[in-house]
Each structure stands twice: as structure tokens, then as C-alpha cells.
Design a protein that fits this description.
Blueprint: H1 4-14, E1 19-21, H2 30-37, E2 45-52, E3 59-65, H3 72-78, E4 84-86, H4 89-96, E5 114-117, E6 126-129, E7 136-139, H5 141-148, E8 151-153
Parallel strand pairs: 3-5, 5-8
Antiparallel strand pairs: 1-7, 2-3, 2-4, 6-7
Length: 166
Amino acid sequence: MNDHTLVERYVREQRLAARLIAPDAPMPTVPLAAAALGVREGQIVKTIVFEEKKPGGRVAVAIVTGDARVDRARVAAVLDLPPLKLASAGAVSTAIGFEVGGVPPVAHVSAVPVVVDRGVLAHDLVYGGGGDEYHMLEISPADIVRLTGATIADITLTGDAAPAGS
């Protein structure tokens, strides 16, 4: 079971006021998810998994709004980690328990360091991955922070200087 059913069970077990939404369209990108849900791109959250650049290094998660670009250097600094790169699909699946394209902001199979961008907290509800590209999780940012033990920080790039893969 490596899909939305894990997220659904987690929501039930944690007694969250969250819900899975399944529009009749795949939502592998922020613009497609926002259009399918009828919300602004800023209400979609991206759960981005990073790993240390050295082989076998630690994994960390950054959660930012869909209209923002994450700054890897800031994520590493906030979490007191060495330089980071985007995690491989295998590292994401192993450490988080979900495939790229459906990674939820909660319900990770391993406890990993998480940082939530301060901009996420500007919304009452956000929509993150629901376990696969057909489901989204509607959840409060406060629940994301509480359940992941996340650090809150400014981790997005400002201006147009955004490197690829963020």
C-alpha cells in the first residue's frame, strides 16, 4: 500500500480535520492541481524531499507554497545540514514512503527533519500531495507543523534568481 490509502488511514488515526480530495484529473503539477481544485497556486503546497550530496546522506523535507521556489541553501542552514540536492526517487520512496508526484506533507514512514516556509502559514487550509497524483490532502498548516515537528522559517527564493529543481 504505497498510495492515498495510507494517507487516508493516517488522517483517521490522527483524528484530523483533514480530507482527501480526488478530482477526476491527474494533478502532477501545481497549476494542474490548483485548476482541478479551484484554488490559487499559493494554496497548493509542495513537499520537496532533499538528501545530502554525499552518498548515503540524510534526507530532509521542505514544504513551500506552490507559487514559491525553495532555496536549498536556506533549508540546509535552517536544519543544520550540509549542502543538499533533490532526493532521488528511490530515496524519496524509502525515507518518505511515497512516490514522487504524490508525496504528502504528513504521514511519512520515517521521522525526517522538516521545515515549513512561513508563507504556508498564511493560509487556513492548504492542499498537498495525497499519496498519488490523483488525490490531494486538504489540511491546516498548523496540523502539518504539529504532526511533523517542523521548524518554521523563511526558505524561499526572492526575485527571479531561482535555480532549476526548486
